[in-house]
Amino acid sequence: MKEGKKAYSWAKDIFPFNRSLTGKGVEKTLTYFKNIFSDLQIHNIKSGTKVFDWQVPLEWNVKDAYVSNLKGQRIIDFKKNNLHLVGYSQPINKVLSYKSLNKHLHSIKSQPNAIPYITSYYKKYWGFCISHKKRKLLKKNNYKVVIDSNFKKGHLKYGEIFLKGKQKKEILISTNICHPSMGNNEISGPVVALAIAKWLQNKRNRKYSYRILFLPETIGALGFLKKNIKKIKKNLIAGYQVVCVGDDNHFSFLQSKKGNTLADCAARYILKKQNKKVKYYSFLRRGSDERQYNSPGIDLPVCSIMKSKYGNYPQYHTSLDDLKFISIKGLNSSIDIYKKVINLIENTKRMKIKTKSLGEPMLSKNKLYPFISTKRTNEIIKTRMNVLAYADGKLDLIQIAECINEEISKVLSEISILKKKKIIKVIK
């Protein structure tokens, strides 16, 4: 639990920061991580920069925001909970009627005690979020509305750790740093990614190189890809979007667009070995930066191992997703599962196999098929036949093992036998 305990302490420290796509909250978070991992590089992308079909927005910062009665008593206070303010809210300093104010209030009727998380990044707007319970208590009076925010030509910032291995081929760990005070949906991802980076840093004889990214969601990933797409497409063999990895519930898995990449198969192989319930989701249920990594023309092998998947737990995007919803145990289990996946890829020889003949090889002439065929024959040689079925020269050893639901050691044993008989050839 040591790594989980450390990750939770980091989570507590950065939880209060008012993160958004840009601004001081993101900068404070990255500076905090750099103090833990000195080799973390902080990159800047200027406001207004075109990143494919998108544009980096102006830098947004907030000094204060509140709604008070005319006696000066704060009814809604950004300084008490930064979720009270709609992300990227425009500045305002006015006395408004209840009717006018109410048009800019957001609450969740079905969750009366929750403050929702709302943003308006790319359209001018201002607003406040409040629990529905407190909203119902508001009197139809006039209110002082103050948002002391500012927009300027600044920068979008993201963090990058690159750990060089023996090979240029690399594995990507990507996470987000753009949500304010929420535990599972935001904080868990960066602290787990940082824990993995610390572990990898101390890992001797790394076969592959590792790139760990701390990005504002969507625009940050697009900004990184715009700058690095050629290099990443050439070298990336597997990637994982690390998000919602802090709670105590069962694991969830969201596959890549292709669904059968090395990243997918390695993750599923390890998850199946846990002998615990796992919820599997198709790419159609995507919602984080796996969208960008798998988008047409980008097409990177990126999937995601989560605990409670974003959008699939009631606390999601509300104040109920707090430090009580995540735990040392939950964080530790996620760190552990990613370490196992990485070790599997690191320690498994990358090989592809292909049959030498067209069509199914005749095994009996090589004494690899029972002389007498019975109803149990298929079961006896199931692994052998399944290995041959996927020996198309396209799939890695891990991919084949996962596809046929077999231990890698057994697959390797069959490959050795089939290779010796010159039925297949190994493609390195």
SSE arrangement:
Layout: H1 2-14, H2 24-36, E1 41-46, E2 50-51, E3 54-55, E4 59-68, E5 74-77, E6 92-97, H3 98-102, E7 105-106, E8 128-129, H4 132-135, E9 142-152, E10 155-163, E11 170-176, H5 183-201, E12 209-215, H6 219-235, E13 236-241, E14 251-254, H7 262-273, E15 278-281, H8 290-293, E16 302-306, H9 328-347, E17 352-355, H10 377-380, H11 382-389, E18 392-396, H12 397-403, H13 408-420, E19 424-427
Parallel strand pairs: 7-8, 11-12, 11-13, 13-16, 14-15
Antiparallel strand pairs: 1-10, 2-3, 4-5, 4-9, 6-9, 10-12, 14-16, 17-18, 17-19
Helix pairs in contact: 1-5, 1-9, 5-9, 7-9, 7-12
Mean pLDDT across residues: 95
Low-confidence stretches: none
- With strands numbered from the N-terminus, the spatial order across the biggest sheet is 1-10-12-11-13-16-14-15
The name of the CATH topology of the largest domain is: Aminopeptidase
- Which shape, going by the Cα principal axes? elongated
Query: Tally of extended strands?
Result: 19
What is the CATH homologous superfamily assignment of the largest domain?
Zn peptidases
Distance between the termini: 39 Å
Rg over alpha carbons: 26 Å
Walk me through this protein's architecture.
With 428 residues, the chain is of the alpha/beta class. The protein folds into three domains: 2-57 and 155-347, Aminopeptidase; 59-152, Glucose Oxidase, domain 1; 352-427, Arc Repressor Mutant, subunit A. It is built from 13 helices and 19 strands. The chain has helices spanning 2-14, 24-36, 98-102, 132-135, 183-201, 219-235, 262-273, 290-293, 328-347, 377-380, 382-389, 397-403, 408-420, and strands at 41-46, 50-51, 54-55, 59-68, 74-77, 92-97, 105-106, 128-129, 142-152, 155-163, 170-176, 209-215, 236-241, 251-254, 278-281, 302-306, 352-355, 392-396, 424-427. It has an eight-stranded mixed sheet with strand order 1-10-12-11-13-16-14-15, sandwiched between helices. A four-stranded antiparallel sheet has the order 5-4-9-6. Helix 1 (2-14) crosses helix 9 (328-347) and helix 7 (262-273) packs across helix 12. The longest helix has 20 residues, at 328-347.
